[in-house]
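Before relying on records like the one below, remember that each one covers exactly one chain. Contacts with other chains, cofactors or solvent are not represented anywhere in the record.
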Amino acid sequence: MKNFPKLLLALISTCMPTPAAKLGTEEDHVRQALFACQSVKEIVKDVKDNTPGPFTAMAEAAKLADEGKRNDAIAAFKEIVAGSNVETRVQLWVWNGLRALGEMPDKKSGTEVLGAILEVPMQGGYDTLAAYTDGTARYLNFSGAAIFWEVKDAQVKELADKFIAASSSIREQAKPRTTPSLPTQGMQLTILTRMGNFVQVEPGPEIINKGAALMFELIRRSKQKSKSDG
C-alpha cells in the first residue's frame, strides 16, 4: 500500500474538522493515553472524589500499595478487572499496577493482544490509529483532527477485531516498548498486552490493510455524522 498515506490524507482533508487543541504531538496526553503504559499513580493523580468507578477503585488500590498493603492492593486491583465489561485500557492500567507489585498474568492471558496501535508518517507528523478489544477506537490525524469511537457497533468492532487479530501475528518478534514517544521514522505497530507493550517497525501489508479498513470506516462515519449535523 505505497499510496496509503496520500489516499488517507485526501479522505481526511474532506471530512474532518480540526479542533482548537492539536492532538497527536509528542507531548499530547491524549495520544500518550492510547498506549495505556502509564503507572496507576500517574493515571489517578487527578481523581478528586469518591464517585464509584474504575479510576476511583484504581486510586484506592494504589493507596493500599503505598501503605505497604501489598496483598490487599493486589486483591483490589484484581477486583477491578474481574467484571466482563471492563474498558480495555483500564485492564491494561490495572495490570501495570499489578506488575509493579510483582504480580504477573499467566502466559496465556499475559500474551493476549488487547489492542493495537498503528503509527503512520504523514507530512512531517504522524497519524495514529488505535483499536481495542472492547470495540472502541481512536484516530489522531497529524493535523490535529481526531475521531474518538466509544459506542458499541458491530461493524466497527468487527473491523477492530480483524486489525487486532492481524497485529497479533507480530507478537513473537516484537520488541518491548516502554514509552509512547513518536517514532523516529517509518511506520510502526504496537500491540498492547497484560505483560506490557511491544513494537514492530514496518508491519506487513495485511496489518496495514486491516488498519486502513478500520480507519476508512471511522472516517466514513465521521463524514456521515457531519452531514447529518449540518
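Residues 1-21 have pLDDT under 50 and may be disordered.
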